[in-house]
From TrEMBL:
Pfam families per UniProt: BPD_transp_1
Domain ABC transmembrane type-1 residue range list: 87-274
CDD domains: TM_PBP2
Name this polypeptide is given: Binding-protein-dependent transport systems inner membrane component
Membrane-spanning segments: 21-46, 86-110, 122-143, 155-172, 209-230, 250-273
Key words, A-Z: Cell membrane, Membrane, Transmembrane, Transmembrane helix, Transport
Keyword Transport: yes
UniProt membrane topology term: Multi-pass membrane protein
Family: Belongs to the binding-protein-dependent transport system permease family.
Compartments, record wording: Cell membrane
Length: 289
């Protein structure tokens, strides 16, 4: 532990007050520039129609109004499918997909990282190669597999493919390789089974990895509309309902801005809370000597 603290002190950069202030100012300028789209989206949700179509567009709203949200409530109230149904579909698909992906990716990465068996390197190279393909390339094979399994027009047509995202397997495998083999061997000598080692030793030490996966997979599934797999209106997601609202024309531009703000608020909130947790676990998850 003392050695780690000594290395951290050596890596600390000596910087003058003027240099620190210049670096802070530089990062603040770029941070403000990157947050501009978020500020515009928040203001657009409270703009009346005449301000939304102004050119050049204004960043901040001059006459804020809640009419966009009121119109959204009235519009959804006239739908023959309750809005709560869209919310439930999205939450169920996202929750099951995230949970399944983290479990499957972790369980598959553990033997690749900590066990030697024939074909291990070939399997990992296939995983790395699959990272090159976009979801559009695999959409037809996914549909064929879901059709053969009889899962088309069900939740599982969207959930099951999420279990097999190769990015999660790659990330978990790279993190698990950093765990010392001596720690696992000591657990085996004490009589721990493979499952006990996996759940009690490996998973806690790769916490930053699966927290990162939760963020990434949540953002992917939260924004999915299930097109091509789900056809029943009762199974449609919140993103599909928002697209239907936005396609209503110019008159629904304000309602579309309100929907966009609602949809983006959930992933941003989860990212903010999870980001602080990830930074904390990355700083404290090192092996202590």
């Amino acid at each position: 532990m003392n050695m780690i603290l000594t290395l951290r002190r050596r890596r600390r950069v000596n910087r003058s007050f003027l240099g620190s202030f210049a670096l802070f100012l530089f990062l603040a300028v770029f941070g403000a520039f990157m947050v501009l789209p978020l500020i515009y989206a928040i203001n657009a949700a409270f703009k009346p129609l005449d301000e939304i179509f102004l050119f050049p567009p204004r960043l901040f709203v001059r006459n804020p109004t809640l009419d966009n949200f009121i119109d959204l409530v009235e519009l959804l109230g006239n739908s023959w499918v309750p809005f709560t149904r869209y919310i439930f579909n999205t939450v169920f698909i996202t929750g099951m997909g995230v949970l399944g992906h983290v479990l499957f990716a972790s369980a598959a990465a553990y033997p690749l990282a900590k066990h030697k068996f024939p074909g291990r390197n070939v399997l990992f190279q296939i995983v790395v190669l699959s990272l090159m393909f976009s979801p559009a390339v695999t959409s037809i094979p996914n549909y064929m597999i879901m059709s053969w399994l009889g899962f088309v027009d069900t939740y599982w047509a969207v959930i099951l493919p999420a279990f097999a995202y190769s990015l999660g397997l790659y990330l978990m495998k790279q993190f698990m390789e950093q765990i010392p083999d001596a720690l696992l061997e000591a657990a085996k000598i004490d009589g721990a089974s493979e499952y006990r080692i996996f759940w009690s030793i490996v998973m806690p030490n790769v916490k930053p990895a699966w927290l990162t996966l939760i963020i990434l997979v949540f953002q992917i599934l939260w924004g999915t509309d299930g097109n091509g797999f789900i056809y029943s209106e009762q199974l449609k997601t919140l993103h599909f309902a928002s697209n239907q609202i936005i396609q209503g024309g110019i008159a629904r531009a304000g309602v579309g801005a309100a929907v966009a703000l609602i949809l983006m608020s959930v992933p941003i909130t989860i990212f903010i809370f999870s980001q602080s947790r990830i930074i904390e676990t990355m700083a404290t998850s090192g092996m202590k000597d």
